[in-house]
């Protein structure tokens, strides 16, 4: 089965968006270029997000798996990071969501919480 390992996002400002993904989500800069502006960011699972500039930016949603969505949410809130919503049941399962600099939904979830909140309960 193929394994997805890169995703390209078109953003208004590569540097601003790069800074948000590195400071908020802890992604690492893998590569940067200036002409045209581009940044490649890597997560701890070796997945790469490629940022390129486009106005208006394209829309999509990103979902990142974390060890514990509640603990991650609390830690990020103490750093002053604003969320769209705290961990909760929602249309895509269970998790929290923030917005990147272009207003794109960035969801956070963990396996245990997803299973605990989405598994049907016996009647």
Your description of this structure?
With 123 residues, this protein is α/β, with parallel strands linked by helices. The protein folds into 2 domains: 1-58, 2,3-Dihydroxybiphenyl 1,2-Dioxygenase, domain 1, CATH 3.10.180; 60-123, Roll (2,3-Dihydroxybiphenyl 1,2-Dioxygenase, domain 1), CATH 3.10.180. It is 24% helix and 38% strand. It is built from 3 helices and 8 strands; from the N terminus they run E-H-E-E-E-E-H-E-E-E-H. It has helices spanning 14-25, 69-78, 111-118; strands spanning 6-11, 28-34, 37-42, 48-53, 62-65, 85-90, 93-99, 105-109. The strands form 2 sheets. A 4-stranded mixed β-sheet has the order 1-4-3-2, with helices on one face. The longest helix has 12 residues, at 14-25. It starts with 5 loop residues before the first strand and ends in a 5-residue tail after the last helix. The mean pLDDT is 90.
Features:
about 120 residues, alpha/beta, 2,3-Dihydroxybiphenyl 1,2-Dioxygenase, domain 1, 2 domains, four-stranded mixed sheet, 3 helices, 8 strands, about 40% strand
Distance between the termini: 37 Å
The CATH homologous superfamily of the largest domain is named 2,3-Dihydroxybiphenyl 1,2-Dioxygenase, domain 1
Provide the β-strand percentage band: 35-45%
Domain count: the total is 2
Morphology call: globular
- In the predicted model, the low-confidence regions spanning at least 5 consecutive residues are none
Q: How many E-type strands?
A: 8
Strand-and-helix sequence, N→C?
Answer: EHEEEEHEEEH
Helical coverage, percent range: 10-25%
Give the radius of gyration.
16 Å
CATH architecture of the largest domain: Roll
CATH class type of the largest domain: Alpha Beta
Instruction: Note the total helix count.
Output: 3
Find the structural class using helix and strand composition. alpha/beta
How do the strands line up in the largest sheet? 1-4-3-2
